[in-house]
Amino acid sequence: MRKMWYNIGYIFRKELKAVFGDSAVLTFFIALTLVYPVVYTYIYSNETVFDVPVAVVDRANGYESREFIRAWDASSGVAVVAKCRDMEEARQLLYEKKIYGILEIPADFDRDLVQGRQAHVSLYCDMGALLNYKALLQAASSVAIGMGKAIQVEGLPYASAKQQELTASPVRMEEVKIFNPQSGYATFIIPAILILVIQQSLLLGVGTLAGTARERNRFGRVTPSNGHYADPVAVVVGKALAYLPVYILMSVWIFVVVPGIFNLTRIGDKWELFLFLTPFLLACVFLAMALSFLCRQRETPFLIFVFTSVPLMFMSGISWPSSAIPDYWVFFSKLFPSTYGIEGYVKINSLGASFGDVRGEFLSLWILVAVYFVLACFLYYCEGRRIRKTFSGL
């Protein structure tokens, strides 16, 4: 036992030296985890858009159509910057990115309203920016509903104010936006990005260390021909102890400091959050160590792991419902700590769930910890058979 702990300490010191002696690894472990959360959160920090430039093609050119345009332009998210003669002129402005939406009012708009028929308008939006589309559509819908209520009230000239109100709005709906009051993009997507930054940076950094070790070893092995590396458990534990302190500090930055800087939603208990993140960090470390055996050169992690960030984001169910994802992809996503990490982190941090509410994700992460720890030990066992034969007498 004493020898094992001595080997763990030796491997810990060697791995820590390798981490801080490699600029590429430091970039993944420290620079990436420091900068990426800030950059992503800053990009999405303006969660509500204002005065989206649009053009109007008013073929009716009547009183009602002008009222519709004025009310739409008065909305906080809309700014009518051009009134075009035809759709071709408006499309040209859209192609030049001078506007992001076109409102077309047909020639029979006023006549249909006067004659009691349903009128129509057409809204064309540049779907390259969903926030712009959301602002324009919500504003147009609100104006249409308001105009419809006004027309209903005008049809009851002798009714009391109360009767007019009941006719225009028989059911009063009160909208309460919980957990994301501003309906912003950052509030729901940034938590998933923060979790993925931890996992992906570990995969890249540990993979780079493994690729470097193989390049420098004349036998192409991850571990050197050294008796301290004969015990696979000592290797896995020693390496993990070198990575964990760095990521504990980075976790404080990512999950406490960055959300505080940008005033993101934080309604969960921070101690319960860090208790939940403990198996997540361990699972990510052991996963990175196991997958590092795929890395034959320093550049290999870029080819294997970088592209997986977007698929893992979608498969986690945060940006696309899991019920709409094929079962085999859902099963595949469960092999990664990020899936359970995102689910649990969002529940605790953004929804205010108690620790008991994330018991399933917590236990699943511990299962992944055990699975990837055993897998990493097995891979290092296979790697170190020749070392054990050489140093069996030590």
Which key features would you list for this structure?
about 400 residues, mainly alpha, abc type-2 transporter like fold, 4-stranded mixed β-sheet, 4 strands, about 65% helix, about 5% strand, elongated
> If you average the pLDDT, what whole number results?
86
Gross morphology is: elongated
Give the beta-strand count: 4
Number of contiguous helices: 16
Measured as a percent range, the helix fraction is: 55-70%
Report the β-strand fraction as a percent range: 5-15%
How are the strands ordered across the major sheet? 2-1-3-4
Rg over CA atoms, rounded to whole Å, is 29 Å
Helix/strand order, N-terminal first: HHEHEHEHEHHHHHHHHHHH
Low-confidence stretches: none
Instruction: Give the tally of structural domains.
Output: 2
